[in-house]
Amino acid sequence: MRYSGGVTSAYSDSPADSHRAVEAVWRIEAARVIAGLARMVGDVGLAEELAQDALVAALEEWPRKGVPDNPGGWLMVTAKHRALDQFRRRDTYERKLQEVGRDLELRERLSGDDLDAALDDHIGDDLLRLVFTVCHPVLPAEGRIALALRTLGGLTTEEIARAFLVPEPTVGQRISRAKRTLTDKKVPIELPPPQELPARLASVLEIVYLIFNEGYAATAGDDWVRPSLCQEAMRLGRVLAGLMPDEPEVHGLSALMEIQASRIPARTAPDGSPILLLDQDRSRWDRLLVRRGLAALGRAEALGRMGPYALQAAIAACHARALTPEDTDWARMAALYRLLAHVAPSPVVELNRAVAVGMADGPERGLEIADALVAERHLRGYAQLPAVRGDLLARLGRDEEAAAEFGRAAGLTRNARERELFLARAAALRQPS
């Protein structure tokens, strides 16, 4: 079947199937659509509104007419047309022509299809532009992170609030203030000049890694991983490495993401259930990504000044270089975590160190470190703390205590697949031997 625009319907299933397709496409394409619109309209808040309008249109049309062959393109075209309508209605058409045109002669030529073509003329990378924009120093750190996770990571306000253990209205206010500040300060949606890149680099790397992590271990929902987010973050990392080749942490982040992403094919069973690292079939790891990651790590090490991302990549490399779990150099990993805790101290780093120490020196030593974190307020509500303690207790034969910890972890996680995993481990520990 063909409908307006000449796009062929991929299939004609039930409205419920179409709604699911819209949701799936939105998760994959939202960041790119918003980034492209932001470049076009020069306003992050307006870009998000236009993208939401296109989403509503898809929810109305696709159940009736079928899912288009290029659903992401359909969303972008629909949002772009709505933007053009708004420009005309707001009497700003001529101003937008001037922004798009490079000189008077071009502006005089622009109309109809010519205008559409000019608006589609990307120079550079829209998503990277938006990353640097939301990392502008006019925004406070919490505002940058909340806005980036909302617009680029596709998380809901509720999911962001849960991830950072703050009330949902607080997150909503941070996002609204951030968008309003960017508009009020007339911050352009563009890459900063080269001399300003280093000043924003730390924030940009943090945002890219947050996007990657949301794909690698989804905060909430039914999926254990969201590979499209990982791929987008890795692509941004590669672009940054080309843009700033002398920055070791850029290569360190690229190395970390490539090595971690290499495990994605082995992280889930055919039914979508998660498979833990030590249980994975390592023959399914993507060796090309491993090689890319190790090469990027080598570049970071050659430049010196090993920062947090390069150190985490070196830790990930300990797994990547081991053909079996038994071959893992846990002692080196524990030493690297000790160094990372010195360079970038955090309770989460210390919890990961507990795991490495537990493997290198025995579960008793690891449990000592994990037990010291129980009172840490930043880990209240963090499912991995009871999960780590549960694993260490199980290895010590303290099955009842371990089962209780896994039960606590299940109650804290927002990811359905992870909850199933924790509940299954708790049930297995309670079964009579």
From TrEMBL:
Domain of life (superkingdom): Bacteria
Transport recorded as keyword: no
Transcription keyword on record: yes
Residue stretches making up the RNA polymerase sigma factor 70 region 4 type domain: 135-182
Domain RNA polymerase sigma-70 region, chain residue ranges per copy: 32-91
Alphabetized SUPFAM superfamilies for the sequence: Sigma2 domain of RNA polymerase sigma factors (SSF88946), Sigma3 and sigma4 domains of RNA polymerase sigma factors (SSF88659)
Signal peptide residues on this chain, from the entry's feature table: none
Keywords: Sigma factor, Transcription, Transcription regulation
Boundaries of every DUF6596 domain copy: 200-300
Family per record: Belongs to the sigma-70 factor family. ECF subfamily.
UniProt name for this protein: RNA polymerase sigma factor
Originating species: Nonomuraea salmonea
